[in-house]
Amino acid sequence: MSNYKTRYDKVSAFFNSHKKALMTLKLFYRFLIVPFIISYAYLLIKLFKLAGDGNLDNVNQLIKAILAPGTSFIVMSILRLALDAKRPYELYDIKPLIAKNKKGQSMPSRHVLSATLIAMTVLYFNQSLGIILLILTFFVAITRVLAGVHFIKDVLMGILIGVICTIFGLWLI
Q1: Are 130 and 123 in contact (CB under 8 A)?
Q2: Chain segment 55-67, per-residue pLDDT in tens
Q3: Most buried residue, 55, 56, 109, 111, by most Cβ within 10 Å?
Q4: Is residue 17 classed exposed, middle or buried when 0-12, 13-18 and 19+ CB atoms within 10 A define those classes?
C-alpha cells in the first residue's frame, strides 16, 4: 500500500466518522470561492468607474486588473491541459470525500490558481482585503487536498504560479 493511500485513508476515516467535519469540508469546498468572486467583481466595478473619468492611469489600472489574472488563467489552463496530470483518485485506490468524475488536469489546481490570482490582484489595490483573500486561498488549497481531488503539489503550484504571474503582470509591467 502506498504512503499516499495510507495517509488519505486516515484523513477520509476521520471525516467519515465526524459528520459535522465532513459537512464543513463540503461547505468550504463549494462556497469558499464566493468571497473571491465578489471581491474581484467589486474591484473591477470600482476600477471601471474610475476609468470612466478618462484618466489614462485609471484606464491602465483597469486593464492591468483584467489582463494580469486573465492571461495567466488562460495560459495556465492550456498548460494544465498539456500536462494532463492525474488526480489522486486516478492513481490510487481512494474514494475522494467530494465526488468528482474529472480525469486528469490536476496540476495546477485551477481553483487555487484562480483564488491566488484574484487575491494578489486585490492585494495590489487594497492590502487589507488582499491579505484576507490570501489567507482564504490557503483554505481553498487545503479543502482541495482534504477532499482527495488534488495532491499537495497541485495546490502549491497553483499558489506559486499565481503569485509569480501577478507579481510580473501587476508590479513589474
Answers
A1: yes
A2: 999 999 999 999 9
A3: 109
A4: exposed
Distance CA 115, CA 11 (A): 24
Q: Considering the entire predicted model, what is its pTM? A: 0.95
Query: What nine digits make up the cell of 11?
Result: 484523513
Return the C-alpha cell found at 48.
471601471
pLDDT at 59: 96
The share of the chain scoring above pLDDT 70, in percent, equals 99
Cell of 138: 490557503
Q: Which is it for the CA torsion 131, 68, 116, 52, positive or negative?
A: positive
Asked if residue 88 has a cis previous peptide bond (ω within 30° of 0), the answer is no
Contact between 95 and 147 under an 8 Å Cβ cutoff? The reply is no
